[in-house]
């Protein structure tokens, strides 16, 4: 499996929120998810391990890893 190229991915995305444990980006340009090739809504980069996510919505998630950081791609339907 190819590794996710976080830098080139993030360069297309809009930074949204950052705190101690996560950094999130909004996908405003319909970049394809590396896991399922469908455009994702948001990318969440986990900066701490382990990290808890408090999601307020029911979402489909795809997960990747880059440099030991978890990447979470959210999909809304
Ligand atoms: Zn996906």
TrEMBL record:
What Pfam family is a match for this entry?
DUF7385
> Could you tell me the superkingdom of the organism this chain comes from?
Archaea
Q: What is this protein called?
A: Flagella cluster protein
